[in-house]
Amino acid sequence: MATQIVMDRTGDNRHYFDAMDPQALLKAEERFKEPAAVRTSSGEAAVTRTLNSTADETLFSAASRG
Predict the structure, then answer these.
(1) Structural domains of the chain, count
(2) CA distance 2 to 10
(3) How many CB atoms sit inside 10 A of residue 48's CB?
């Protein structure tokens, strides 16, 4: 199950979704209003501006979300 982590001043909210579920993918894609970071297979972070449904984790920070 994929995870989107949204960090803000209150902590973090985790949104889990099934990458094979079209409705869940739509909701996950709606969170992309600003760039986010994904963890690559080598463990490094990479900036992304679109949903990568194969990423295990995607991180959104409050600084990028206004």
Answers:
(1) 1
(2) 22
(3) 15
